[in-house]
Design goal:
Order of helices and strands: EHHEEHEHEEEEEEEEHHHH
Strand order of the largest sheet: 2-1-3-4-12-11-10-7
Number of strands: 12
Helix content: 25-40%
Strand content: 15-25%
Shape: globular
Number of helices: 8
Radius of gyration: 17 Å
Length: 251
């Protein structure tokens, strides 16, 4: 695919959400759908951001790379190695974004798929499901941030992990369950396994649906964290905003 790049002179950021999943229908009445998750966190942090939603599971994409100032690939219940045509099409789009140095942010499935496309390895972790509110050990900072709170916590909900980072990636954060929790590549790719867009209430309702699969011990551990611990979703959403603003302000 060939795309024409141009600078967007508007001061308001336009971020494209590459939607890779939908909330289960029986949970949508209470929690809304995934696109609403992103609208909520950006509305709480910055009113000067426009979001454009592209449901890539239905092969809906921007007409050109410069349609937005940057893109976010969301989480999904599918695995990056599942045999789905929309995943293979998204892989090609990721490669186009990377080659053109467009700002790209990956969350959970997005974090994993970007790593896979760029030469890393993703598979089910031996530890199994990682759930609930997780903290991190930071190895370095995202370079576009002047300050990073290293005590941040985010919700996790996944079996798959990035087992090996792409050679060009820099590891930002780990924990004992997820060695490759956050990373970046140069100044135009930012990735994390955790979910700033999830509320504790939504993650808990999803957890309850998996109770029989998880086993009681793992369920209880995750339940306790989701019911009793707060996340730093607003702080991390501001990290995202600094990422998208950093390059656009220099153009």
């Amino acid at each position: 695919m060939l795309y024409r790049l141009r600078f967007n002179p508007m001061s308001i950021l336009k971020i494209g959400i590459l939607l890779t999943d939908h909330v289960l229908e029986d949970l949508q009445k209470k929690h809304n759908d995934q696109d609403n998750f992103y609208r909520r966190i950006f509305e709480e942090t910055d009113q000067e951001v426009n979001l454009e939603i592209y449901d890539v599971t239905q092969f809906i994409y921007p007409k050109s790379l410069d349609e937005c100032d940057g893109y976010i690939i969301t989480g999904s219940k599918l695995s990056v190695y599942d045999d789905e045509r929309w995943i293979r099409v998204l892989e090609k789009f990721i490669n186009d974004l990377f080659l053109n140095k467009k700002l790209l942010l990956g969350v959970c499935f997005g974090h994993q798929l970007i790593a896979k496309v760029l030469g890393g390895e993703v598979k089910k972790a031996d530890i199994g499901w990682v759930l609930g509110v997780q903290s991190y050990e930071f190895k370095t900072n995202y370079p576009w941030l002047e300050y990073m709170n290293e005590d941040v916590q985010l919700i996790h909900s996944h079996q798959d992990q990035v087992m090996r980072l792409p050679e060009s990636a820099t590891l930002v954060a780990s924990n004992k369950y997820v060695p490759n929790s956050m990373y970046y590549i140069e100044d135009h790719v930012m990735c994390m396994q955790g979910h700033p867009e999830f509320t504790n209430a939504y993650a808990y309702d999803v957890l309850c649906k998996r109770r029989d699969v998880l086993g009681e011990e793992k369920f209880k551990q995750a339940e306790s964290s989701l019911l009793n611990e707060k996340t730093d979703y607003l702080e991390v959403t501001n990290w995202w905003l600094e990422f998208f603003k950093s390059k656009n302000q220099l153009q």
